[in-house]
Structures are given as structure tokens and as C-alpha cells.
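Handout, page 2. Input:
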Amino acid sequence: MARRRIIAGNWKMNKTPSEAVALCAELKDLVKNDAVDVVYCVPAIDIVPVVEAVKGTNVHVGAENFYIEDKGAFTGEISAPMLKDAGVEYIIIGHSERRDIFGENDVLINQKVKKAFEAGLKPILCCGESLALRKAGTYQEWIKRQITWDLSGVTADQVKNLVIAYEPIWAIGTGETATADQAEEVCKMIRETIAEMYDAPTAEAVRIQYGGSMNAGNAAELLSKADIDGGLIGGASLKPDFGKIVNA
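Output:
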């Protein structure tokens, strides 16, 4: 069975609620494609208006972050049940900005993956290497270790509903892009890692995205690769060009 393509926009810390609603209206007809899962992962304050704005369309809503507890004295945080109740379906976990700027480690990321599944959210689990690791030639071992840690104790049935986003850190927001062959090499290795951890059917089911300056110009070539099932799109998800990526 062919894996269904998934194109997700990571809006990061962009768009006020009113701007978010305007962007949804601008993109509405551009992202129509019933053969693709289209997801907007938006800032927490935008979730409620965006869920309302995309009603009746083919767009799903995702969140960018949450905390592992359901409720309690965690000032400034937001929980998985809150997101679920607000209409969120997907959640980005382990993005390099969360790891690097906010100090999230693989122990916490593993807890987040488990909590997301418990709450009925679909994780988009990010992994990827720095330029130093890429140049040292140890990037495959690094990514394999991330996947192994982040999915510790996660079941095969859960992994089948997981999305993994390979994002080489050196290609995020830099305009640098891994070549289609470089991206395919790592996405294939990730799938092989899942097969080793679980089994072949689980590895065949899991959807793997490429993220890292995917744009309207390079999306078709990247998406033509056997193990690349979609994209996690940063800056280009805030522009009309996002529609070209969805339909690449």
C-alpha cells in the first residue's frame, strides 16, 4: 500500500491570530489536494481561530509544542488534552529549535511522544544533524541514536501512525538544501532503523518527511524519492508558494 503524502507547514513564531486567519483564506484554494494530508502547525494563540478558519477544507491543524503533564502548576505551558480539545490533530516534537534554544533532550522528547499518543495526537518527530556532524561523517549514527532514544517504549502500532521529519539543521532557514540524494539516503536509513527496532510492515507504514528549505522549486525532485513521503515546511509555508509544494 502506498503511503499517503503529508505536507505540513511549521509557522514557528509567526502570525498574529488575525494574520493567521487571513493566511488561511489566502491559501485555501491553493492547497486543495485530496491525495495529500495538508497540516498547518501554528502558534498556540492561533490554534482556535485557525481551527475555525479551516473548517470544511482539506486542512488539518497541528501545534508546535506542549508539556508532558495534563494539567497543574506549570505556568506558561499548554497540555496535550488542551490541544486535542481545541481541535489539534498533529504535534511537532523535537524540532531542532526546541532542542537547541530551549534545551529539550531525548528523554523529554521520548516522554512527549508517548504523551502525544496517549492524548490522541499524531506526533511529527524531528531529527537531524548539525553541519559539524555532517562534515565529520557521523550523521547517520547521530540520527539513528535520536530515533532509538525518542521511540523507546513506543509500540509498533503507534509508530505506524507516526510522522518522522528529517531536518538537517544546516539546511533550516539557511536556503541550503540537502540534495535529493542526500535527503533520500538519510530517510532510507531512518526507515531501515524502524525496521530493525520493530519490523518491516511498521517501517513501510511510517511516513518520513524532509524538512530543511524545501520550496516550490525543489519539492517535486525531493518528493520523487522512494523514502520521502512529504515535507515539513518552514518559511515557505507562510507564502502562496506553499500551495505549489502541496501540489508538487
